[in-house]
Amino acid sequence: MNAVDTEKTYTLQDLETTEFDGTPLAVIGHPVQHSVSPAMHNAALSKLAGIESRFKDWAYYRFDIAPEDFARALPLFHKRSFLGLNLTIPHKVQAMDLIKGVSPDAECMGAVNTLVWDELGYDGFNTDGYGLSRGLEVDLGVSLKDANVILLGSGGAARAAAVQCVLADCARLDVGNRTPERLKDLMAVLDGMPGGDRVQTFALSELPKDLPDNGVVVNATSLGLNAGDPAPIDVAQLPDGWKVYDMIYNPSATALLQQADARGLPIANGLSMLIHQGARSLEIWSHAKVDAHAMMTAACHALKLPPRYD
Ligand code: NAP
User: Is the entire prediction scored with pTM above 0.90?
Assistant: First the structure.
């Protein structure tokens, strides 16, 4: 593998002036400095290179590209033969109009986070829903199939989660959001899907009265990112058999998770979602089995969190 500085953040100018040897991959965002994707992916690439020599020259970079430069940057990444790109805030939606093809689930999710090079352009996928579903399985032993899910939020991450829940045949999905208009937009997407009739809405201030005995709450709001943020729902209203997953992983225990934990409900944060969406992207690019544990260890190290899974 190329020697890659996982701390370095490249720019559009670097892309214009630098040759990226071997098989380059990258995450593109704005801001992107905080992204642990280079650490995660380069750790997994190191493992792959130890098994198969074709991965020895693969390397994963980080690029800060402003939204107004994205349309100009994408053809340059293509010309420089970047085999795979991960897109993060704010490029996931804009990219839909600039790429050659979009997978059917990403089309429903309205966003792409994984691009794959093809001679004629990039093809787009969305691995966030998959990452969530694996995260729930690994951390909480929850399979989305036949699950009762309460989803908090109606932004990009909530849309990917909701589509994944419906595609996975969840038993019931209740979605709540602060802003009713945004919730209505999400419902319009789900209504058009087979199984969309299992979805109901509620106001965050009061959980649905008729909740089944067990299920999983998934927080896809950004409430909890800042110190002092309250929990988006009143955890006391959950039946005893529920589990709670927060997509937020930094801080590692939001007020929602702390309150659920204090009630004795099983909890997990979004680190596993981050790892598994990344592992899936790398599998799409490499067609190889990816070591998610190596990615987790590297992410924990980069985030200065205690190591997990080892
Ligand atoms: P987004 O599109 O900006 O959506 C933000 C959501 O949070 C909206 O539903 C918004 O509600 C809600 N919200 C914001 N402030 C709120 C408040 N004070 N009270 C109640 N609701 C509030 O963001 P996103 O991309 O969907 O990301 C959402 C969260 O998921 C972020 O914390 C992000 O870090 C996390 N995430 C994690 C992963 C992972 O791999 N673990 C992946 C993707 C995202 P309104 O509609 O009312 O504004």
Answer: yes
